[in-house]
Each structure stands twice: as structure tokens, then as C-alpha cells.
Amino acid sequence: MAVWLKCSRNSGAAAVTLDSGEARLLEDNQQTFDWLRKGWIVKEVRFKQDGKSVDRIYYRMGYLLYVQLINKQKDAERDVIDQFTLYQSEAARRMEEIMRVPGERLLQLKGLTVFLADSLAWSLSTLKDQAVFPANWSVSKRIHSLHFLLAFSMISCTKDSFDWKEIGAQYYPGIGGSKAFDLSKIEFLNILETISGQPAEALGMISGGQITPIYFAGTLEGKWSNFQAGPVHALTNVSVSQDQYSTAATTLWLVENRAVLTRISAEPLFLQETNSLIVCVDGHLRSVHRYFIRQLMNSSSIDQVILWSDYDEAGLQIAREIYQSLRGHNVRHKWVCPDHSIITSWPDYQQHMGILLQYMKSEQEIVLGEAEDWRRWINH
After folding, report:
1. In this structure, are residues 199 and 291 in contact, taking their beta carbons and an 8 Å threshold?
2. Looking at residue 253, what DSSP letter applies?
3. pLDDT score at 204
4. pTM, whole model, 2 decimals?
């Protein structure tokens, strides 16, 4: 690490230049002399060609400051190692307790418990390489998120329903434990839902005031509600987690944008005559969408799914996520192309989009089409 302190003799101030080339002023005062005396910086005087006249004065990092920074870095690394070792020790003990708990909830938590069990054998470098965590997360934050996942698993296994605050309070019994995960609440819940494949509400957590809507149109039946084909309706993450929905529709449309949903649902008798249910993922496939789709596929007579997203990189990613959420279900898949053609294979659609994106990008709404196009896609 190189730190340069460039001093101007005329101004009596030194400009600090770091590796990045950033310059700051350092006053020629008692603090500078103290740094010199302590050995944190060293003074370099450069003379002109006559060997007598001073040209410039530089300051460099001193050896003692270098050693101090190296030791500080090592202390931070040791602290992280200690944090991870403590987590693995705690997780090993708690996982034994979790695995002894009988009941259906443990089956729901299978993806999460497998992830936590795997983490017991990770090295620190393995933790850093885990793609499930955002790349900008520090190692300490990743370890903290593992504690949250462990805490959530523990309380979910022992209580049918619980509040957000109870997660931290049970895991950290002391004062302030209930607030232990507050600063990263949304991020940690997203990680939880990504790993478990289910919304937190489906695993027992009472909604903490966050309501995620699911917009749809078509026939849908639950234990406490029934919807008929016609206008756009909405469910929430809470209702999806606490109810079981099915549909009499045989064609399921999964679209990215609301405009497509509202346009198709507004077409007179289209949904009824084609026996269609259309669901909007609203620009991002969340865990509650996956959970809802899984409910429909497991309890309905759907025989084909039409996937329709924007024709850009983000749209292709959404198409991929939707396709992955449908794995294991023996239904026909159809992707709508910008020219209104239909592709029935994911590798073919992926290849088609890879070529297309080199030349153009567009939104669903631009190639929305008319009812005759939509019927043709269904009958393709």
C-alpha cells in the first residue's frame, strides 16, 4: 500500500496523493510533525539539478504505519474467522435440535435445512463464493444472514405462527435480541425465500406489514374465496400462504407486465371461451409467485403454459425463472416471440433471444396483438 504526501514549500501545505491519484491538502502543522516523530510517515526531499536547491518535498507512508495497517487487517481477518467458527459451532448444535422436531413444517423447510447443513462444512472462501448472497455483501453480513436463517428455521419448526420480532428474541434471549435482524429485514427475507422457495408467511411468519400483490384474471377457487373470469383480481402473499388455490382453466398464461394482463382480460369472453387463467408476475418473479404457480400446477388440470415477457435481457431472465419454476410438471410450454410466432422449447427460445437481442429490444406491449393471435397461440 503506497500513500504519498506531496508538500509545496511555498504554501506550507502538503497534498496527500493515494493509490487512486486522489489529492488532499495536509497542513504543515504540529500533527504532521507528530506523524514524522512517530514514524508513520517519512520525508523525502528532492533537489534540483544543482544538487542544492530544493525542488519538491514528498511524504511517504512510514514503516510503523505500514505495520499498524497490516496488523489491523490481520485482526479484522481473525475476527471474521472467529465469527464464522462461532456460527458453525452454534449451527451444529441447533441443527441437531431442529432435525429432531417432527411434523410437516420440517418438510417445508427442507431446502433451508439442507442449505444450513451444507454451511457447516464450508470454508471461509466457500462462504465468499456463494452466489445466493449479493456480491456486495461483506463476509460479516453473510455470516449474520446465516444466523438469521438458522434462527428462522428454529422458530418455524416449533411454532405454527410467529412475529418478525420473535425470530431474533428467541435466538438472542438478551435485551435487544428482538431487533438483531431489523437493519437487514427485507434483504434477509429475500434470501430466505430464495433458498426455501416459499414466502415467509407459508413458513409461519405473520406478515410484518409487507403486502405483495398477485394480479390475475380467470377462474380461481380457494377455501375462502372464489373468482370468476372477467375483470382483473388480486391476491396477496398472505392469502396465498394461508389458502390453497386451484383453477378449472387448462391454459395458464404467465406474463411479465400488467398492461398485457389488463388488455387480454378486457377482451369480451376471451378467458371463458379459451378456458384461460392469466397471471402477472409484475416485472419480477418473487417467491410468492413461485409458490402460487406451484399450487396451481399441483391442484389443477392445466395442460399448457404460455410464457410471455419483454424482449430484453431482463425479460429473458424472467422467462428463465418462470421456466425453472415449472420444472417437474408435465405440461406444454410455449414462448411468444416478437413476430407472434411460438417456440415450444426453452433451449430454442434462449438461442432465438440471444440472436434477437443483438439487433433489437422491445416490450410486450409493442407486440401485444389481438384476440385472433392469442387464440392461435393457444391452438398452436
Report:
1. yes
2. E
3. 87
4. 0.64
